[in-house]
Amino acid sequence: MTALEINADGVLNQGTFIPSPNHDARPDEAEVKLIVIHNISLPPGQYGGNGIIELFTNQLDPTAHPYYAEIHTLKVSSHFLIRRDGSVLQFVPCGLRAWHAGVSQWQGQERCNDFSVGIELEGCDTDTFTEAQYTQLQQLIAALKKRYPIAGIAGHSDIAPGRKTDPGPGFDWSRIA
């Protein structure tokens, strides 16, 4: 297996790139120094469909599922999504600011989107993640650390406590230590 690598444009050398319009430039002084781990499933608790891709590309059909009617107007994205089978999708180059963290703070610094890379794991708070996901996550973290001065890894719940709960109790933090 070839090691994952992030190129100079901030794009993963392996995986599938699906551009999201939901991004903008990072502030000039911002360095990528934080990895934020999330979970997502669309519809909630269901895996394998195109709902996540459609959400991140503003193509979610509000009539396809009752929950979609509530969220179809959101403008959100993440840099990466790791599916249950370990496949990796990228939506935003790492040099750009994806819209994944929302109102957030890490080590006294607000606006985590400015200096972080978001990694979504296909899953939910109540399920465990797959071996394939942990393997790809470990490799993706190594590639990000090789390219950027990563100083920390946090869950969405760590940077937005009380507002977010992911990656949830099913995530085994010891697998990325």
Could you give the topology of this structure?
Layout: E1 16-17, E2 23-25, E3 34-40, H1 51-56, H2 66-71, E4 80-82, E5 88-90, E6 96-98, E7 105-106, E8 109-110, E9 116-122, H3 131-147, E10 152-155, H4 156-159
Parallel strand pairs: 1-5, 3-9, 3-10, 4-9
Antiparallel strand pairs: 2-6, 4-5, 7-8
What would you say this structure looks like, in words?
With 177 residues, the protein is α/β, with parallel strands linked by helices. The protein has helices spanning 51-56, 66-71, 131-147, 156-159, and strands spanning 16-17, 23-25, 34-40, 80-82, 88-90, 96-98, 105-106, 109-110, 116-122, 152-155. Helices cover 19% and strands 20% of the residues. The strands form three sheets. The chain has a six-stranded mixed sheet with strand order 1-5-4-9-3-10. A hairpin with a 5-residue loop joins strand 4 (80-82) and strand 5.
In a nutshell, what does this entry contain?
The protein is of the alpha/beta class and 177 residues long.
